[in-house]
Amino acid sequence: MAVLGGAFFLALYVLGLVPQRIRLVAAVVFAAGFLLSVTVRRLRGTQAAPAVCAAVLCACILLQIHTTAVFRPIASLDGRSVRITASLADLPLSYGDGWRYTLRTDSVDGVPMRCRIEVCSQSGTELTLSQTAAFTAHVYTSETPGPGGVWLHAYEMRDCEITERRPDFTMRMLQVRQYAIRTLCRLVPGTCGVVLAAMVTGDSSRIPSDVYHRMRECGIAHIFAVSGFHLSVFSLFLYRFLTRKRFPRIPAVLLAGLIVFFFMAVTGFSYSSVRAGTMLLLMLFGRAFFWRADACNSLGFSLLLMGFIDPFCASDVGLQLSVLGTLGMILASPVATRLTRRIRLRPIALSKLAQGVISALCMSGCIWTLTLPVLTLRFGWISLVSPFANAALLFAAQWAMIGAAVSVLLSVIPVLSFLANAVAFGAALLTKYCIAVSDFFGGFSFSSVRADKRALCFWIAGTLLVAAAAISLPLTRRRKVWLSTVLSLAMLICVSGFQFWSLRDTARITVLDVGNASAVLLQSRGESALIGCGGARTASLVQAKTARLDLLLVPRTKAAECQGAADLIREVPCGRVLAPARMPETEPLFFYASPRTTACETCKIGDAELSYRSGQDYAAVYLQIYGRTMLMLFSPGCDLSRLPQTWLNADVVWSRSDLPPVMEAEKIGLVLLSRSRTQDDQTIRAIRASGATVAATAERGEICLRIDKSGAVGLE
Predict the structure, then answer these.
(1) Architecture per CATH, 506-715
(2) Strands 549-553 and 574-579, how do they pair?
(3) 483-502 tens-digit pLDDT
């Protein structure tokens, strides 16, 4: 079951990244492999081969069915104004003068359609959990399927009609979640209250961005994602309490299982909670019937179940981290047990403390190692203090969550409500300690470092070589494992330190591959700025390169640009946000930030100086760094006469789609273009024929320009 579930989950993730024709080829190849594995006598005895082939074949079939039957009908609504009937699928959030809703649709243009839509409305009408809304909206969709089914997006609900609806199970669970958040924020005012509420319910949207950013840098933001840690804290605490009080075993298991299902429902059956809940239910009911559920097989079964329910769940980064973290706990558990058995100190309390610290360090270190590739590839950074911060935090975090849940429960009982404040006060002290831990570890200059894909690949290759060398040495198995682990961690630190040292005086300008749209990322001296925000994939591409943005510059008042910026702000913490003016097109920005509206601005990012000009028929940014200049034009029809003439003599010119006709390509050192067309393009050939160097995203994908302190320019 472990091999089948793991191969199925991995196949869903990989096949979700490739075109449809490759899925069909993979289906044919693995169908033939499955037939061979069950018919050939030599292969028939190996159970792994047919399991892997069957898992990949099922993944191909499921992805094709869901893409055709579910995603394509929703994607066909892109760019249309439709009439939608929907109800709340999550708690509403207020932004400025409006609201952001996550809705579950009942019908679209009178046709029954079940999907989710995210709507930002500034109408000022608050939609409650017990209501259904019928409204008209201009919707757009993502380019590719994503986890959770939130594929429709819209800004503004026009002609909204609100009616009352009958309560259902989802509404009741959302009301419980809303009551818990309000109660904890009332009992514990301020930052501690919203952090405590997020730890219990998983709703981290109300946490101040600076607090959440520090916790994320320390690698402890996982306490806000309801998963195995949360469910095991509540269910196992109740189960152990009941069994110690000589409560019958089967009723104790049923009550603990009910707690697991309850928390899964309160969090909206998120992927991480469903994965953890499935494993816990198998374990609990195994204890009821005197059989022990294998952890790896339980993990494989939960992945198999979730993949059949939603084949696109494998692309959810939260689920990926949850799976790898659980696998790390499974692998680290026997090692931690052997280490703690050797500790014998006096008094006994000191021995238990040392055993707890060693066990926590071993667990968090193994989890950190396995989740490292996903964190690096998806977010582009490594938290070097994560094992130590988690070891210092987890004990306090679990008791803070228990105290918060007990205080909410006491507030419901009128006779015992006076005890809720006392219990919440204790939980608030533990939460204060958790925030202090993040402040302490986040204060180190090397608490987190950036690591690009090349550094990660170099580290993985070096680790494989070290492991191969250790296997060939005449050492015991235990010494081989320890030698490989120590050398691998030392290599990681050396690679990260060398990258930090080599890039400390280097600016990096990345033209993101968002097609015929604008998105240029500037990184210098540890600061980041995104210039332009077009394209549906901008948020995910930026997340893979930086944990936060110091500046977001929206150069034009175009609807697609402003909508993309609003989506990005929701996903990536941003410092300053600049927009040309407050207009109907820029209103989505004001739901998530309060951008400074200006048509002319000069600011610094690291060692770079940005000058920005925008008007009705032009939008441009002029960049100066280390003696080099770069001009960014955000429209092929940009009126160059409105710009300073010195800007036209830039060393590098970036433009959307094409250069303005009045610009002479042969006088420019390097031309960068964002294009969605193929490399067989007349424009690119014409620029090359003039003798200029040109690079286009249609040919190369992502384009990276490096400028060091000496002024040398390198093109990747």
Answers:
(1) 4-Layer Sandwich (3.60)
(2) parallel
(3) 777 777 777 777 766 666 66
Cα–Cα distance between 228 and 218 in angstroms, integer?
20
- Nearest residue to 549 via CA among 518, 579, 580, 571: 571
Residue type, 267: T
Q: How far apart are CA 701 and CA 569, in angstroms?
A: 24
Residue 600: CB atoms within 10 A of its CB come to 10
Are the C-beta atoms of residues 623 and 629 closer than 8 Å to each other? yes
User: What is the C-alpha to C-alpha distance for residues 636 and 652, in angstroms, rounded to an integer?
Assistant: 16
CA dist 459 and 455 (Å) reads 6
Tell me the three-class secondary structure of 123-169, residue by residue. Answer: CCCCCCCCEEEEEEEEEEECCCCCHHHEEEEEECCEEEEEEECCCCH
Q: What are phi and psi of 378, to 5 degrees?
A: -90, -35
The position carrying tokens 């042969």 is 666
Distance CA 600, CA 676 (A): 30
Catalogue the E-assigned strands of 384-450. 448-450
**What pLDDT sits at residue 488?**
78
DSSP assignment of 14-54, as one string? HHTTS-HHHHHHHHHHHHHHHHHHHHSHHHHT-SHHHHHHH
Residue 694, classed as helix, strand or coil, is strand
CB atoms within 10 A of CB 152: 26
pTM (2 decimals)?
0.68
**Alpha-carbon gap, residue 278 to 523, rounded angstroms:** 43
- Give Cβ neighbours of residue 341 (< 8 Å, ≥ 6 apart): none
Beta strand pairing status for 116-121 and 131-141?
Answer: unpaired
- The identity of residue 111, as a single letter, is V
pLDDT digits (tens, 9 = 90+) for 643-669: 888 888 888 888 877 777 667 666 677
Provide the residue type at 525 as one letter: R
Task: Give the C-alpha separation, 634 to 652, whole Å.
Answer: 14
* Per-residue pLDDT tens over the stretch 573-625: 777 888 888 776 776 777 667 787 877 888 888 888 888 888 777 788 888 88
User: For residues 489 and 459, what is the distance between their CA atoms, to the nearest angstrom?
Assistant: 9
Q: Per-domain residue ranges for the chain? A: 2-75, 81-166, 453-502, 506-715
Position 193 pLDDT exceeds 50: yes
CA-CA distance, 403 to 397, in Å (whole number)? 10
pLDDT for 288: 66
CATH number of 81-166: 2.40.50
- Cβ-count burial of 358 within 10 angstroms (0-12 exposed, 13-18 middle, 19+ buried)? middle
